Amino acid sequence: MEKKSSKMSVFQLVLIATFLSIIILQSFIPFLGNIPLFVLDITIIHITVILGAIILGPRAGLILGTAWGICSFIRAFTSGSAISLLVFTNPVIAILPRMAVGFLSGLVYQALAKTKIRPSLSMALVGAFGSLFNTITVLSLIYFIVGPQYAQQIGSSIDMLPGILMTLVGTNGVPEAIAAFIIVPIIGNVLMQLMKNRTRK
User: Fold this and answer.
1) Mean pLDDT of 138-145
2) I need a surface site. Which of 22, 43, 66, 113 has the fewest CB within 10 A?
3) Backbone angles phi, psi at 35, to 5 degrees
């Protein structure tokens, strides 16, 4: 039993390292993880973090989410975008929501796994949850922490900012959530099968 447990631990570390590598590549290779727009990037990096949290649990999700946040923080200084420089050089906005996405996605999946909901649907729901949580949390922190500067940067006023941010939830957040809802269970089922095959050895 100890030998199997040890092998499983090594396999989990390899998976975490693989997910971390993917997150780093997605963060710094243009269009691989972020599609830059005028106001805010559309991201697919959250899918990698959510998958890791589902497969490996909330602690691994926290590690992956933290890595994503740190990459966002570093990337903001080199992206050449005034919006990114304003928003994501603040570690509260860049890092904390991403940490929460990883950790909570793992917890929510574990909770859903105890219900009668099919694993594929559970993965899809967690994908949508993690994606929307990230969008809403980041936009909320933008409003409360750098709202006036952000409004000025996009040529608007602080009074109009809530409406603009809500529009971003619809134009950025909803498509990201739909993508996560579809993609997470497709890849997640494959990874789960790999995990099961590994534990049988």
Assistant:
1) 97
2) 113
3) -110, 105
pLDDT of residue 107: 98
Whole-angstrom CA distances from 23 to 44, 89, 90, 110, 181 are: 10, 18, 20, 23, 19
Question: How confident is the model at residue 43, as a pLDDT?
Answer: 79
CA distance 109 to 132: 15
Question: Quick one: which of 18, 74, 65 has its CA closest to 45?
Answer: 65
Within the chain, strands assigned E span 34-35, 42-43
- Provide the sign of the torsion angle of the four alpha carbons 66, 102, 132, 37, taken in this order: positive
Instruction: Indicate the DSSP class of residue 43.
Output: E
Tokens of 194: 């790999």
Phi, psi of 88 (to 5 degrees): -90, 0
The DSSP code for 188 is H
The DSSP H or E segment spanning 56 is: helix 45-56
- CA dist 15 and 185 (Å) reads 17
Q: How far is CA 163 from CA 40, 53, 155, 160, in A?
A: 15, 32, 14, 6
Rounded Cα distance between 43 and 131, Å, is: 9
Q: Are the C-beta atoms of residues 188 and 123 closer than 8 Å to each other?
A: yes
Question: Rounded CA gap, 174 and 146, in Å?
Answer: 23
